[in-house]
Structure formats: C-alpha cells, structure tokens
C-alpha cells in the first residue's frame, strides 16, 4: 500500500543532517508544517513553512510546554485515510492529512548524565514530541514516523528512491523503531525517578543490539545489547563472541582492583588462572603466566598499563584469544598483530554500571555491583599472631582475586602473585585441595604463602590442611558459629588470621 507524502510535520531538537531531507521533500512538492527553531531552520533554506500555531489557532504556551497538542495536528496524523467516518470528520473539521512526522525528543538522558538539577531534568521530559511519535507510529498504515536523527540516512534513501512515496513495510518498520525510542525514553525517566522512590519494578533498556555468531554454544542464538565501541577500540582480529564478552567482563572487573600498580590478569572461563603485579608489564605478565601455564592457552589477557615491546615479545609467545590494554607502543602492536585472528582491544574507559541483573525463573534478579574491596583498615586480627607487613599485602592481594572467582573458592598467594586457585567447588575443602594440587603441579612451594576464602570456614579443616602446606596467614570474612575452632587451631600452630566481615560470594 503506497502513500504519497504531501505534508510533513517536522519539529526536532537536533538539526544535524536534516538539510538534505528538507531539500528532497521540497523537490517532491511536500508541504512543511513546523514550529520554533525547526521552522526557522527550514525557512532559512528558502522554503515556506506553515506554522503549527496557524493550524491550531493557539500560540506556543506555558514556556513551550504546549505547542502541538491539538486536534488539528493529531487529527491530521491519526485519522484513517480509508475509513469513511474518519474522512467525513476530517472534512467537517477541515483537518488536513499529515503523512510524515519527523520528531526527536528532548535530551533527557544527556541532561541527567551531565548532572543537571531537578528542574533542568524535568524540563527535558518531552510531552508533545513523544505524543506525536506514538500517534504517527500507531497510524503506520497511513503515516511515516521518523523518531531519531539516527534514522535520517535511511529516510533520505527512501525519499530519493520512491520520490517521497512510502510503502506499508517501510512505515511499519519505522513504527517499530519509534516504539523502541519511546519505550527507551520512558524507561530512562522512570529509572531517574525510581532512584528516590524505589518502586518494586524493573526496567532496563538497551537500544543497540549486535548479533553474535552464536550464544554460549553453537546451537544457541546470541545478541549483545550495549555500546561496546564506547568501551573498546578493536585493533586486530575477529568480532567478539558471546563467551569472549563474558570473559572480557570478568577480566576488566578484576584488573580494576589494582589501580595505581602494574597488574596483569589471565582469564579462562571467567576465572583467573593467573594474576600478578610487578614493576613492569613484562614482569607482571611473567608472574601471572607462571601460576598456570596450561590454562593460559587460549585465554583472555588484560593489563592496566600500556604494553611496550618488551612485554609484547613475551606475550607473543603464547596462543591467546584476546588481549586488552589501555594502550600499546607502536612496535608492540605491530608484533602482536602478526596473528590475524588475535583480538586486540584498547580499553577507552572504565565500566560505570552500578547494578547487575540476570534472568531466571521467568523473571529477573538485580543487585548492586560488589564495589567493596577489602582494605587494610577492614582487617581484624583474631589470632594471637599478627600478620607481618608483607603478609598483609599478600592477604589483600589474595582477597581481591578471591572476590572475582567463582564460589566456593580458595586463593593461595604471596605478595603480588597468585600461586594457585581452587574455583567453583561444592565444598571449601575441595577448593583448597584443588588449589594445593595446582600449586604443586606448577612447582610452587606454599611455605610462607597466604590463603584467602570468599566465605567463612564452617569447620577448622581448611586451616588444618593449609597449615600442613606451610601457609602462614589467612583472610576470610568470619561469621561461622565455629569460628573459634579455626582461631584456636591457628593460635596453636602460630598462624595469623584476619576477618574482614564481608563475604564475596560469586555465582
């Protein structure tokens, strides 16, 4: 069902790339209806405009809050062109058809992001614009709605190709985009108000979707919603897969714990198989790689410092999937690009999300991001022996890694280096035994090492086993009814143990 555009209502906040559309419409003898700044813009291009105020018989009132909310405008958009009753009323009330609506919305999200005060933010809640968009989208049988400047290129191509005529499929596609715009806009407004009101309602909206090769497995469909380009610049390799994205998220969150020092993290299936700090990226990488030279194969690598040639020469020896850094020296990047499928990313900014959510049981659960990083001031020594300065550094290091590892987990470490980990086990004892076995497999002596646990020890068995391996200090949240049994064992064997009071489960 083809519809020729005879009259267009245009009222936009952003005028970027609007000019060629105006010229194309004028070339096809389309009449313009507009108001305010958009009217001036069109008139400066040399075209006649019917002011909205002329259609409605009312000026823009209440500081611009009411301009288009009138039957002369909405009637021209909403009346059905093939309905006899609608046609009769349109003729009776002298309502002319509006076949194209180009409207965008006040920049509500941008105003919130810039830290505007409440009055400024509230004034950026669009009323007329969103009503026009919804009305035109509802009547997609007769009207084309363009609801964002991001759609201008597609609109111009359509106008030029069809000489300002539209087909039903075009109008329906643009209608779907319009409801995407309005639902996203309303979600942003609700979430702003709900920061204070805390209504038990979940709304989250992401407009940019990227189809992935597949999901977690090849038989599953996968899509990423978000703006990955704002976080990373891809410097080499193929597109990230579903599993790549999950691992990259784990890597970025873990390395963030080590601000102010050169750190290197190697991730495999969201768990760290190597973490270290050092005086250089090269040193940190080599120490991280030592912890598990097998699991590092095909892993996701990340550092919080620019990668120089010395580091690149060592990293280049390993087969890896992804490498992430804030920057790369020119010669380092040239070397790392020698394998075309390697995904090399430059991280442009930090993560900003404050909430986490996931779907389950036909619903969604949401929680705050775990921003708590155990610090020296959080430690409460519960044993007779105090940890040494070096042990305190090692304990805090191990705690940072433990926080980002699947529960049940145990981390064995020294200052600045994870020696081994036990991850995702059904018992804490199993996690510790796994960590001990891994440390032995890669040649680490655990005498003088420290142990971190993501949750309390329900029994003293973990400290008993750790003591036999030479572990001298332990960090855990505490909170078990049998804490004293673990404390007593440590006291009897000269071990230091600190409580943090904070659990870091990760599922």
Strand order of the largest sheet: 10-15-14-13-11-12
What is the residue-mean pLDDT, rounded to a whole number?
95
User: How many strands appear in the DSSP assignment?
Assistant: 23
Count every helix, treating DSSP H or I runs of 4 or more residues as helices.
19
Q: What's the helical proportion of residues? A: 25-40%
Structural class: alpha/beta
Distance between the termini: 53 Å
Q: How is the biggest beta sheet arranged?
A: 6 strands, mixed
Q: Give the DSSP E fraction (strand runs of 2 or more residues).
A: 15-25%
Return residue spans where pLDDT drops below 50 for at least 5 consecutive residues. Answer: none
Rg estimate, integer Å: 31 Å
- Overall 3D shape: elongated
Notes on the structure:
The chain is an alpha/beta fold. It has 19 helices and 23 strands. The strands form six sheets. The protein has a six-stranded mixed sheet, sandwiched between helices. Strands 18-23-22-21-19-20 form a six-stranded mixed sheet, sandwiched between helices. A hairpin with a 2-residue loop joins β11 (262-268) and β12. α8 runs antiparallel to α10 and α14 (309-315) runs parallel beside α15 (330-336). The protein is elongated and about 95 Å long. The two termini are 53 Å apart. The mean pLDDT is 95.
